[in-house]
From TrEMBL:
Keyword terms: ATP-binding, Hydrolase, Nucleotide-binding, Protein kinase inhibitor
Organism taxonomic ancestry: Bacteria, Bacillati, Bacillota, Bacilli, Bacillales
Start and end residues of each Carboxyltransferase domain: 1-201
Entry annotated with the keyword Secreted: no
Name this polypeptide is given: KipI family sensor histidine kinase inhibitor
Organism: Jeotgalicoccus aerolatus
A single GO molecular function term of this UniProt record: protein kinase inhibitor activity
PANTHER family: 5-OXOPROLINASE SUBUNIT B (PTHR34698:SF2)
Amino acid sequence: MEVMQYAEDALTINLGNEVDEKINRQLVILKAAIEKLEIEGITDIVLSYTSLIVYFDVQKTNIEKLKESLSTLDLSDLTDSTYSYKVIKIPVCYGGKFGPDLDSFKADGLEPEDVIARHSEKEYLVYMLGFMPGFPFLGGLDESLYKARLDSPRTKIPAGSVGIGGQQTGMYPFDSPGGWNLLGRTPIPLYDSSRESAILYEAGDRIIYTSIDEDEYYRIQEAYEKGQYTVDIEYRGEENGA
């Protein structure tokens, strides 16, 4: 592990320089191991593609104490532990007013139904959350769906929009400007402070998009608002070395 300090109240642990599923798995395991140490003063642990940032309260601990505690961890030992994660199914209404860029894939030789078939019903790995609370950067996109961001970003993208930017897919938890190609929208709030977990997923989890029609979109939206809809979440575990 490469431990570096870029701020007075944070330590960064680097595990590599490539976007890789194995590194993501190691970061998730390392985060859990640090949390188990229950180090006084740590306020947050944030994952990126290849690193983990430990934020701490300088009034409760200092960099030397934190480094000493972290030095007790051996990443090679952690790889033998059980890796648990969630699989969250997100219903998406593709195309139409929800996915204005779906037809743009015709220029790449793909009809809308082809794009939907290749984008839905597969597991995407949540590499990290960023840009805004709850925005997942997902890996595992079919190479035929790679598409550069729009030359002119939109000034407002509706919350729940699902899109593609380059080699990744993701979704917008809030109304926001953005330049991703929009395929559809989910009726499930991606950030909801009234839930036990305001954000349904975190780094290391998986997301599966399921295709629904417009009628189903509004049915789910209404059911969720009435507290009558339960998000489909499956809990899984695997060997970390797998």
